[in-house]
Amino acid sequence: MDAGLPRRSDQIFDAALTLLAEGGYQRLTVEGIAERSGVHKTTLYRWWPSKDALLGRALVESRLLDVEMPDTGTLRGDLEHLVGSAVRLLTAPATAPVIAAVLAGAGEHPALAGHARAFFADRLGRERAVVDRAVARGELPPDVDAMLLFDLLGGAVWVRVLLRRLPPDPDTPARVVRAVLHGLSA
Amino acid sequence: MDAGLPRRSDQIFDAALTLLAEGGYQRLTVEGIAERSGVHKTTLYRWWPSKDALLGRALVESRLLDVEMPDTGTLRGDLEHLVGSAVRLLTAPATAPVIAAVLAGAGEHPALAGHARAFFADRLGRERAVVDRAVARGELPPDVDAMLLFDLLGGAVWVRVLLRRLPPDPDTPARVVRAVLHGLSA
């Protein structure tokens, strides 16, 4: 167990994210998380001084939003895996409402926008291992812009699913990755 | 003047989008739009039977969110122009809150999600002219996936500005377009 997290942190984080999805940021309280998770609120306050401290940690640490960092042996394989994970997070019934709630509240609540920013920064930090291995294999140039790489991959899925409201095809990950690695020009 | 729109449609659409940005979808009413625009509500109801009919039209037709379709003579020039326009829409004080309000409400209100979908479909329809000219010039293959092209370009800006909350660099359009046309691989 991670020494920096209390026992039953999985239940606590699940409760926080589910309540966020159900009621939005404004109605989320430490008391509500205590009730939903079955962990006493004094325990929660011992670990996190506020709902924002708890929620920020939940977004980064929860198993619900966790994405396995792949090591398939090729850049293409690793990136297709990551794009597939993004599609699942944005469409699965357990996770899509959490993401929608973060998006819905981030404009109005700077703390929530900060949590979203921290979430994406954490992801990018972990995704860099994929880029570093690809550079070592000669698949990417050493000066590649890793943030741009992941913004293109994630953004394409994001626009299709959340803005166009189109279902991703099974070959979406392969097509997106091919485009970002090799370009669409003639 | 467009025969399909009433006089003062610009003021009406501006009022609708500004009220959406200020108070969110739920509090938007035809009465509120009438008051803000100075156009009598019976006139508004003569043109649009509901707030959704009016709002859907406002998102697609308003000068506020309008983007000039470029014809610079090169695909790169046209796309950099479009990405620059997207950056401005997502960051300018007059438009960023409108987009934030659409995002915030789309998860909860299917009608608003439908308006967003229609907005992006309309944009894609107009952007196709850029792709058609590039295919004719031999800059893009005839079977290019135009939707993927614009999802990559728009998505990268979207993730950077709205999710990472990072300011776009002045060279963001050029870097995004270069990556999408020629790829990031070594």
Question: What does the model show?
Answer:
The structure is a homodimer of 186-residue chains. The first copy, chain A, has helices at residues 9-23, 30-37, 41-47, 51-61, 75-91, 96-106, 110-136, 146-163, 172-182. The mean pLDDT of chain A is 94. Chain A is elongated. The first copy, chain A, is 67% helix and 0% strand. Chain A has two domains: 9-61, Arc Repressor Mutant, subunit A (Orthogonal Bundle), CATH 1.10.10.60; 75-182, Orthogonal Bundle (Tetracycline Repressor, domain 2), CATH 1.10.357.10. By secondary structure, chain A is mostly helical. Chain A has nine helices and no strands. At the A-B interface, helix 6, helix 7, helix 8 and helix 9 of A face helix 6, helix 7, helix 8 and helix 9 of B.
The tally of helices of chain A reads 9
The count of β-strands of chain A is: 0
Q: What is the CATH fold-level name of the largest domain in chain A? A: Tetracycline Repressor, domain 2
| CATH homologous superfamily annotation of the largest domain in chain A | Tetracycline Repressor, domain 2
How would you briefly describe this protein structure?
With about 190 residues, chain A is mainly alpha-helical. The first copy, chain A, has 2 domains: about 55 residues, Orthogonal Bundle (Arc Repressor Mutant, subunit A), CATH 1.10.10.60; about 110 residues, Tetracycline Repressor, domain 2, CATH 1.10.357.10. Helices cover about 65% and strands about 0% of the residues of chain A.
Provide the descriptors you would attach to this structure in a database record.
homodimer; 186 residues; mainly alpha; Arc Repressor Mutant, subunit A; Tetracycline Repressor, domain 2; 2 domains; 9 helices; 67% helix
